[in-house]
Design a protein that fits this description.
1 helix, elongated, mainly alpha
Length: 50
């Protein structure tokens, strides 16, 4: 049986900006994290406050 590692992580999906004229960063960063996790076949749960 292969050695299994358990990975636990949290990600706060927030993007405080001083004003609304600045571009939001969280969509790009979230896609990067999801891509990285997909490459490693890691599943997770994201919680976002609405």
């Amino acid at each position: 049986m292969p050695f299994m590692h358990e990975i636990t992580f949290t990600m706060d999906v927030e993007d405080p900006r001083p004003n609304d004229s600045l571009q939001r960063r969280y969509p790009y960063v979230t896609r990067q994290v999801l891509s990285f996790l997909n490459e490693l076949n890691i599943k997770g749960t994201f919680f976002c406050v609405g």
